[in-house]
Amino acid sequence: MTTLEELLRDAHRVVAFTGAGVSTESGIPDFRSPGGLWSRYDPTRFTFSRYVASPETRAEAWDMRRAFFAHPVHPNAAHRALARLEAAGRSAGVITQNIDGLHQAAGSRKVVEIHGTAREVICIGSAPKHGVPDGCGWTAPHTWAFDRLDAGDPDPRCPACGGLVKSSTVLFEQVLPQDAIAEAYALAEQADVLVAVGSSLQVYPAAELPLVAFRAGARLAIVNDESTPLDDLATVVVHGKAGPVLDAAASTVLGG
Ligand code: NAD
Predict the structure, then answer these.
(1) Which of 7, 13, 149, 155 yields a CA-CA distance of 20 to 30 A from 184?
(2) How far is CA 205 from CA 113, 171, 178, 244, 253, in A?
(3) Is 58 in the pocket of ligand 1 (CB under 6 A)?
(4) CA 137 to chain CA mean position, Å
(5) Residue 35 pLDDT more than 80?
(6) Does ligand 1 have an atom closer than 6 angstroms to the CB of 114?
(7) Is 12 a catalytic residue?
(8) Structural domains of the chain, ranges and CATH numbers in brackets
(9) pTM for the whole thing?
């Protein structure tokens, strides 16, 4: 039986595909964790069309974003192990569903964020339709919006064109950012090993990416604390916590 260490040792272009589970050890809950942020906010209620139509939904979305950043969060051993593999020339990068920026904070340089980032806000225009932002191109760090809210503006507008402002993340109904998706497909197709970490592999189209790599000839490794629908296709499945599992594997492969 092949181990994760063996699979990584023999690989030259490891690509990681990460979900919310890679960040739970940093204190950011996934959707399912009891008592987490998502038990207070139902993310399925935040559709793109509701966000555009309703100032109340926008106010609630800003509340949720503030709660997301309420406590300082830091990369954990899993983020750091993936950054070490990249720095050693073993990994071609990370495709992430996460919006928390922790891969970059850990030192990963090639990070494709297919669901956007909570660390930035963007103009989406005055009346965007069909789940597609239609802004003027203005962006700012997320703290810009928090400063506006603190200054008593409940519904911050784009300072350049007056359009609606939104966190640079992907809401339900929203079309995924096409350049990030193209980049993610290209990266997945180049992988000789794709390691899926902390993802239920149930959120589509994101979960298609490990299959893209598999069909292009990559071997799959799955590191998750529960079973996933792709376990049967994987060369290696490790049921455990992402931090200790990846830390041990990277240390064995890289020596140290
Ligand atoms: P998901 O579908 O990616 O599932 C998370 C998986 O990770 C689950 O199978 C869970 O059992 C597993 N897991 C949790 N902690 C783990 C650990 N320490 N080690 C190994 N496995 C672990 O994620 P979701 O919660 O259903 O969220 C779906 C989408 O919501 C994500 O794709 C993302 O866009 C967004 N989201 C992002 C963040 C973030 O940025 N940190 C957090 C929550 C949700």
Answers:
(1) 7
(2) 13, 13, 12, 28, 32
(3) no
(4) 22
(5) no
(6) no
(7) no
(8) 1-27+74-115+176-256 (3.40.50.1220), 29-72+120-169 (3.30.1600.10)
(9) 0.94
